[in-house]
Amino acid sequence: MLHATDPHAGLRTAVVDWFAASARDLPWRAANRTPWGVLVSEVMLQQTPVVRVEPRWRAWMDRWPEPADLAAASTADVLRAWDRLGYPRRALRLQECARAVVKRHGGGVPDDEAALLALPGVGTYTAAAVLAFAFGHRSVVVDTNVRRVLARAVTGTALPPPSPRAAELALAAAVAPRDPAASARWAAASMELGAVVCTARAPRCDACPVLHLCAWQAAGAPADEHRGRRRTQAWAGTDRQVRGTVMAALRGSPGPVPRASVAALWPDAAQLSRCVAGLVEDGLVEQEGAAYRLPG
Length: 296
Ligand code: SF4
Prior knowledge:
This protein has helices spanning 2-5, 9-22, 35-45, 50-63, 67-72, 75-82, 89-105, 113-117, 124-133, 144-155, 166-175, 180-196, 215-218, 239-251, 259-263, 269-281; strands at 257-258, 286-288, 291-293. It is mostly helical. It has a domain at 239-293: Orthogonal Bundle (Arc Repressor Mutant, subunit A). It starts with a helix and ends with a strand. It binds iron/sulfur cluster. Iron/sulfur cluster (SF4) binds next to helix 10 and helix 13.
């Protein structure tokens, strides 16, 4: 009866049942997880895969289990602990977030969307994920994995558009169950399916619990209509690589690194100079006389 009125019930049931049997055992999903641990995991996972995040997350939470611990840490230690997770501005925002949680909320992560969104580094996705995964509230969690699963299984396209559209968000809201606990399970399960089965480049359709329901497969797996408009994530020779090289040198040094040593890190002096200036502007690096060091 439910299936007759809810076109997405079969999809949800299949994905949630699959998740119950196959979910990866990740520490931020454990029964003893804390809201702060969930928030930290979501920030780390924004642009970094689980396999690289998990050991960093464990070390991070051992060292700074509560927001107050991270708030009191030196920024240099925070950036060293961030290690090679990439996009280190996230580490600075996470420490600012910890300080705001201490100042505004007495050290406890708020379970309120507006209060979460007001925290540094917390956007729509992270707020929704924390509400669902830390507090069990109903919230529509839409990340790249969920977008891809819905695009394929429901809409029948190879990949979602390069940027989220209103119709996608409306579909995600329509598919999410009304019940808070069921909604949180669906969010976790659909993200997991996108991360490990319905992957961007090589979906494992033969192992997919919703193959029999998948609109994209039913349509004969048509090609990606947005293919020419997608940005590729190049690395070699980019400013990101230069910034990463400089940050790695500073993280690995117990004290300031002389400007001459920094100059030797990269052959293109103009590119290096631009990147170092960007790191200083972002608050990731400080200049001290004729040397550079991590802040604070
Ligand atoms: S059948 Fe393939 S494309 Fe469809 S949802 Fe499953 S993994 Fe994705």
